[in-house]
Write a structure and sequence with these properties.
three-stranded antiparallel β-sheet; single chain; OB fold (Dihydrolipoamide Acetyltransferase, E2P); five-stranded antiparallel β-sheet; 8 strands; about 130 residues; 2 helices; mainly beta
Length: about 130
Amino acid sequence: MLDQITGAEKYYFSALGEGRFLIQSCEDCDKHVFYPRQLCPHCHSLNLSWIEPAGGATVYSTSVVRRKGEDGGDYNVAIVELDEGVRMMTCVEDISPTDVHIGMRVRATVSKGEQGNRVVFRTEERDQ
């Protein structure tokens, strides 16, 4: 997969493959950026650096995708807002898909899967 990806996106997925979740931070306007880009969407600066976010987030939106049990069962699709202010599409894995709700506090983790690593979230209450 990485051989077809270039630029900032390639760096993001390479780090993710190593188990590191990174987002970008603009050195000029001090805003965070996700999905990886070549220039800041806020001020158009090329001066972006990579940081490891704190990991905390709040569920902004959530939906349950229904599947037959033999196909893996229902799963959650969520948009979370990281404490750094950026939003990303993901899933909350450690509870029933129907129990995920807007405003829920969650924490990022890198999950290793058959198709590579991905960022997923777990409820903060269960992480403690």
